[in-house]
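Chapter review: from sequence to fold.
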Amino acid sequence: MSDYIFAGCDLHDKNMQLRIALNDGEGEAKVFGADREGRERMIRYLRWRSGERGGAKIIFAYEASGSGYGLYDDLSEAGIVCWVLAPTRLDRSVKRRKKKTNDKDAQRVLEVIRGHVLAGNELPEVWVPDRELRDDRELVRGRLDVSQKGSGVRAQIKSLLKRNEMRRPEGLGKGWTWEYKGWLGELTREGSGLGAGGRTALLSLLRQLDMLEQEKERLDGEVERLSEGERYRGSVEELRKLKGVGLLTAMVFLTEMGDLGRFRNRRQVGDYMGLAPSSDESGEETDRKGHITHQGPWRVRWVLCQAYWSRSRTDKQEKEWYEGVVRRNPKHKKIAVVGGMRRLGIKMWHRARVAQGIESPLRVAPVGESASVGPRREVAGEKTRARKSVRSRTPAHAMGQPG
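The token string follows.
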């Protein structure tokens, strides 16, 4: 058997707690700094340990966090196999949560990768995007952040008006029209009915809102320029043919979903988007479904929700589908919205994949060749998922089929 140097890491802002073991041996605790110098020292140490065993293969892993993928990049460039694990897919017992230490966290990561390599256990790793995609995400996410900050400021303005019993005059409509903004500007003047403190606070909020709207326009231009690049142009043009899908929705979907070819079927797409029902099966209850998991990129769910509301009003076929689901579930209208979001997300996956020239993930077996592994499991899984759950009252058609 080949020798392996396993290293499980609990990564923090200032240091890295490691557990290092040879094959199935006992782990050794080591601490290194999380800065560039500390990472270089750690890489030199791991190479030294590998050299002692005649070039044993180094396997390194740590949990995904807000620290990003810098450590992954450094280890990969050094020729060390590195896996980034999904924290949500690591088992955590109640006892472990009550006795959590950095060293125990590192030991747990060590056991996960050792079990995968030596025993073939499932590896709960995450897909690591390339550096270009990560950089593109920063721009698109920045655009979404500005929009959400603007929504927060608008909510603050409404709360200020409500506290001071200032009601919108008739004839100004319901939205943030120019007339409505003009009325807000008049409230900042003396004699408007607001006190001095209220006028000052409102004027500050209006300045913030104006700044955010200007910033949003600048970022819209940057996102549009990014969409015209070779990497996104074809996919964006194809996605925007769907009613309700605009430039920002398409760019959020493409940058957050990443490599669309890694999804084999629509169930995997729904799971990744967090739009699949959770399950809680026990004993004879073999098909008990609950609310959606809400895992994966929340930004995709956010833009899909906005896009689907627009789509359900402008697309006749989608409107009929939505109204049909609502009629069958009058007390659970959100089922129709969530199902529509999933349907739209899967349609976008199909279209973008075709635009990128990615072949169908389901292989059609030639005559005389058995196709028992892929398509049969696919169909059986869909039949199981299609059964209606009494507890969740979620109809199978609400979870969506690709159009």
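Two observations follow directly from the output. Confidence is low (pLDDT under 50) at residues 363-403. The longest strand covers residues 4-11.
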